[in-house]
């Protein structure tokens, strides 16, 4: 009965320890015959061996260098890996998984930017391809590298619109000035009506330039 403590005599424990190397099925059958204890299951004896810490010499793993029991044995047609149902899902030589990311594959980041797989080695993994921001990649192909201290901003605030004409070059110092909020006391560029976006951008540029000139004067004083 489950939950009931099973008792063993001293002779039974001695026999169980002496024969602990037997496979569990043979171990159980021999114990039942020896002591007429059919109230004990193979699981009970297995648990006893574990509690006692009796080593059986088996780890449940294939030892290094061992030969598989079915090595060289061909699989019969219609069975195992040769069964028609199994063949349907087997990889074919030279085949690629359905989720292989090919050159030019695109994905969207959590911030809404589009990334594209290009034919350049990934400096972190050494893989033959790597993902880059698509809008930056296309803009630099058309205009050259983005200068130091500058960045790109989507004119229409749509980060998934990667057309180079939709991205303008602005100083990084302008970015916090167009984000809006209490700190700037101006409307956020991305949520503003289209007709106000150029005005907000010009205001941010002027404010950033004034701040830059002020710092230069203070440094020269």
Automatic annotation (TrEMBL):
Designated name of the protein: HNH endonuclease
Coiled coil: none
Biased composition (Polar residues): 58-69
One Pfam family linked to the record: HNH_3
Any one GO MF annotation of this record: endonuclease activity
Keyword Cytoplasm: no
Positions with biased composition (Basic residues): 80-91
